[in-house]
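pls design
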């Protein structure tokens, strides 16, 4: 199973090959290869899989997806309480 996460493009570095940039995933910033998405601009959202932006994504859809991921994360916390809260 593959997982790709939407992120917002914050910067580009075209001085290196392949083109790299910084992408924010809900506040977590990572360096990502942007070579495969040459039409992406600052502030656009991209789908990132294993460090590579593989496509551009609509902002509304990206924000909805990030919200769903947060909800899933919260649900997992409820299923696995911290050790100090286990019976």
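designed seq:
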């Amino acid at each position: 199973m593959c997982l790709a996460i939407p992120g917002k493009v914050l910067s580009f570095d075209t001085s290196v090959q392949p083109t790299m940039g910084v992408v924010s995933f809900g506040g977590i910033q990572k360096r990502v290869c942007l070579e495969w998405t040459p039409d992406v601009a600052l502030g656009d959202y991209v789908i990132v899989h294993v460090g590579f932006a593989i496509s551009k994504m609509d902002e509304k859809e990206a924000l909805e997806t990030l919200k769903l991921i947060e909800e899933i994360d919260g649900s997992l916390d409820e299923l696995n309480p911290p050790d100090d809260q286990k019976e």
